[in-house]
Amino acid sequence: MTDMTDSVNSGETRMKIRRNRFYRFVALGMGASAILGIALGYTSDMFTDGRLPAWLLFALLALALVGCTWFCWSYFHRVDELDVMDNLWAALISIYFYMAAAPIWWLLHDVGVAPEVNHFAVYLATLGVNIATYSLRKLGLR
Amino acid sequence: MNNRLKVLRAERNWSQAELAGRLDVSRQAVNAIETGKHDPSLPLAFRISRLFEMPIEEIFDDRHD
């Protein structure tokens, strides 16, 4: 996306402009996620109390899903190939972690040495592995 | 993969940020390519080749020492 302004700027200026645009995009996405998260928490409480029809909760969840999909699509069109690689490696390692952790825990429970599998704990651990892998690559450990 | 990106950049007195801006990538990407931690995609290799007005094989060398 090179416009007339970009073509007359130096490489450093173009990089700064693009970086600032990207940070604004990420900040906007995080702000929107926070607002949607608060709205979902509030409406789910209203739904539990019977003050909100189910369709409205489903509509908000659909909106969150569509928004998240658009954000991810747009994010990967804004970052460069190195960031895509960092994300792919983080996703690969975390899915392998999940594929190993869940059945191992289930097996240990089956033989009576571990409590029943806590799927939310496995989800959080997978998310942790994903974030740790991505962060380590961002710190230059490639 | 070995490459001459750092030398070519130094010959033009460009910073990594300057080169990154000209290639439309992040400064981290330039650093990763220069240090051999990332091999650029074919489209990026062509952009680098056009920027320095040199054939790709004069910038990148896939032979191991």
Biggest beta sheet attributes of chain B: 2 strands, antiparallel
Segments of chain A where pLDDT lies below 50 for 5+ residues? 1-5
Could you tell me the mean pLDDT of chain B? 94
Helical residue percent of chain B?
Answer: 55-70%
The helix tally of chain B amounts to 5
Total helix count of chain A? 5
Structural class by sheet pairing and helices of chain B: mainly alpha
- Radius of gyration of chain B using CA atoms only: 11 Å
- What is the percentage of strand-forming residues of chain B? 5-15%
Trace the largest sheet of chain B across and list its strands.
1-2
Largest inter-chain contact set: A-B, 20 and 21 residues
As residue ranges, the low-confidence spans of chain B are none
H and E order of chain B: EHHHHHE
- The radius of gyration computed from the alpha-carbon positions of chain A, rounded to a whole number of angstroms, is 21 Å
Strand content of chain A is: under 5%
Summary of the model, kept short:
The complex is a heterodimer of chains A (142) and B (65). With 142 residues, chain A is mainly alpha-helical. Chain A is built from five helices and no strands.
Question: What would you note in describing this structure?
Answer:
The complex is a heterodimer of chains A (142) and B (65). By secondary structure, chain A is mostly helical. Chain A is 83% helix and 0% strand. Chain A is built from 5 helices and no strands. Chain B is built from 5 helices and 2 strands; from the N terminus they run E-H-H-H-H-H-E. The relative contact order of chain B is 0.23.
